[in-house]
Amino acid sequence: MTNKYPTLGFIGIGLMGKPMALRLLDAGFDVNIWNRSKDKLSPVVNAGAIAFTTIAELINHSEIIILCLANTSVVESIAKNDIINAGCVDKLIIDLSSIAPDTTKQLALELKHQCNINWVDAPVSGGTIGAEQGTLAIMAGGSKSDIEIAKQVLKPLYKQLTHMGDVGSGQVSKICNQMIVSCNVMVIAEMMALAQSAGVDSGKIPQALAGGFADSKPLQIVGPEMATETFEPIKWKVQTLLKDLNMAVDLSQQYNNSIPMSGLAAQLMQLHGNQGFLEQDPSTLIKLFSKDRC
Predict the structure, then answer these.
(1) What angle do CA 66, 68, 69 make, to 5 degrees?
(2) Helix (H) or strand (E) holding 125
(3) Closest residue by Cα to residue 141 from 114, 153, 123, 160
(4) Measured between alpha carbons, how far is 172 from 77 in angstroms, rounded to an integer?
(5) Span 255-279, average pLDDT
(6) How far apart are the C-alpha atoms of 174 and 292, rounded to whole Å?
(7) Each residue of 246-273: b (16+ CB within 10 Å) or e?
(8) Which residues are registered as beta bridge partners of 65?
(9) Tens of pLDDT along 10-22?
């Protein structure tokens, strides 16, 4: 470790946070960590991270704070109840979470006013595989100077990081990403179920469509899982897609845009979640369209 690397404080060691924190450690960063569920910290601590019992302590021992949290309410709670009250100034927060754009703008303004803390919203796409391999796509919002810092700090994590505009624009871009991903996974599920009903070996579909206009990363990932009903290990969750689709609906209402495809996908995703699949992998969506839903 050399002095050119800032000390990072990483809050949120979950499905995405764990592999990202491990990659940052492997790249030579000193990484402090905090997570609500302490049992998830061991693999990252064993790799060299320092675990803190409070967010305030972590913030005061870190130069740049990285958030990777479940939803808008969690980010808002930590920002307002922990970061603001930590007594720190002149820090940079890089939020990798996918949360509401308006809340992002509000929190950024509040932290800047009260603590002179800058904010970059940098939601990611690519799933746990992308996090493990360092091939994520990152859509970032913030000032040019803050984005340049984020590019250097997050370099071990991404294949592409695009500056989308001011704070909040990264979150809008991620919502757009999730509209495409969610609708894609939904139609893959109904297509695979139809192929099975028609007597086609659905396991061959991803291979047959590879390289054609119907091909996509989701098809190549969830297609084989749907065909074989291999729903574990869980790499991402139905409730995550549902959260982002609901934000897309909210955003469309705010700007008076019609999004019928994503709106229907949100309803179907909610139906699937209500059947006990919120915490399950989206590959389980095939059960929504299969004759045997047990």
Answers:
(1) 130
(2) strand 124-125
(3) 123
(4) 21
(5) 98
(6) 34
(7) bbbbebbeeeeeebeebbebbebbbebb
(8) 9, 93
(9) 999 999 999 999 9
Three-state DSSP class for 43?
helix
- On whether the CB atoms of residues 111 and 85 are closer than 8 A, the answer is no
* Amino acid sitting at position 206: P
Which token pair is 198? 């028609």
Structure tokens at 227: 């065909």
Q: How far apart are CA 248 and CA 242, in angstroms?
A: 10
Contact 37, 60 (CB under 8 A): no
CA 268/CA 135 separation, integer angstroms: 30
DSSP H stretches of helix in the chain:
17-26, 42-46, 55-60, 72-78, 101-115, 127-133, 144-153, 169-197, 205-209, 217-228, 238-254, 260-272, 286-289
Spatial separation of the C-alpha atoms in residues 258 and 36, rounded to whole Å? 38
Tokens of 102: 């308006």
Q: Is 4 exposed, middle or buried (0-12, 13-18, 19+ CB in 10 A)?
A: exposed
pLDDT over 50 (residue 159) = yes
| Dihedral angle computed from the Cα positions of residues 244, 245, 246 and 248, in that order, rounded to the nearest 10 degrees | 90
